[in-house]
């Protein structure tokens, strides 16, 4: 076997392992799935798995890294869709609802993972926090471009709405959940683009002269 053929075979085996682990981890949970199950369904040997991953945690980290990269690409595409800053926020929100309404949706891979790894010092927990910080920073930057102050607070609000939608999307009607989420995002945008009346223009309460 040539070196290039061997390299291709090695890459294919790793890809098959990661693809299999991703499917099972996402649909059934992480702790409930052992490496033997992944090895069997990926049709590789135990030695092949440990050639590519140091252990199950390393495989889980690769699974989350793949999910992270997919979401980054999704958000990048949404941000490049054109239009105003508010339209870009809407595009990001729609990309989230596209996921909620996709076949086999089982919630957020990162929220699911962190529920199984509650120790803040664990590398998997840390990977989840890093992904969420990136998403929060991205949304904060987008909302800041819509004008006005308080982009940090608005971004935290949007992330909270997103978390709720991701949790509800696999429990209730995903179309209804998506509509509710989009309405919530629209409310955030309207709050940022609607001028707040200054104290001088706010009508003062009328004195009650009734007896």
From TrEMBL:
Q: Which Gene3D superfamilies match?
A: Tetracycline Repressor, domain 2
Domain of life (superkingdom): Bacteria
Name the Gene Ontology molecular function terms of this record: DNA-binding transcription factor activity; transcription cis-regulatory region binding
Which residues does UniProt assign to DNA binding?
Answer: 34-53
* Keyword field: DNA-binding
Region Disordered: which residues? 191-211
Q: Where is the HTH tetR-type domain?
A: 11-71
The signal peptide stretch is: none
Which Pfam families does the annotation name? TetR_N
Q: What is this protein called?
A: TetR family transcriptional regulator
Q: Which organism is it from?
A: Streptomyces minutiscleroticus
């Amino acid at each position: 076997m040539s070196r290039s053929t061997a390299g291709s075979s090695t890459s294919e085996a790793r890809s098959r392992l990661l693809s299999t682990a991703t499917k099972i981890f996402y649909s059934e949970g992480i702790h409930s799935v052992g490496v033997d199950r992944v090895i069997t369904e990926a049709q590789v040997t135990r030695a092949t798995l440990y050639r590519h991953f140091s252990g199950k945690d390393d495989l889980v980290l690769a699974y989350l890294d793949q999910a992270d990269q997919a979401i980054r690409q999704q958000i990048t595409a949404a941000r490049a869709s054109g239009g105003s800053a508010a339209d870009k926020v809407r595009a990001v929100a729609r990309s989230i609802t596209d996921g909620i309404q996709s076949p086999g949706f089982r919630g957020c891979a990162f929220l699911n993972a962190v529920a199984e790894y509650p120790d803040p010092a664990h590398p998997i927990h840390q990977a989840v926090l890093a992904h969420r910080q990136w998403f929060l920073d991205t949304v904060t930057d987008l909302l800041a471009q819509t004008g006005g102050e308080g982009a940090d607070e608005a971004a935290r609000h949007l992330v909270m709405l997103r978390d709720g939608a991701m949790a509800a999307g696999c429990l209730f009607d995903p179309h209804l959940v998506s509509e509710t989420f989009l309405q919530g995002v629209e409310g955030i945008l309207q709050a940022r683009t609607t001028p707040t009346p200054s104290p001088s223009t706010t009508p003062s309460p009328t004195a009650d002269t009734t007896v």
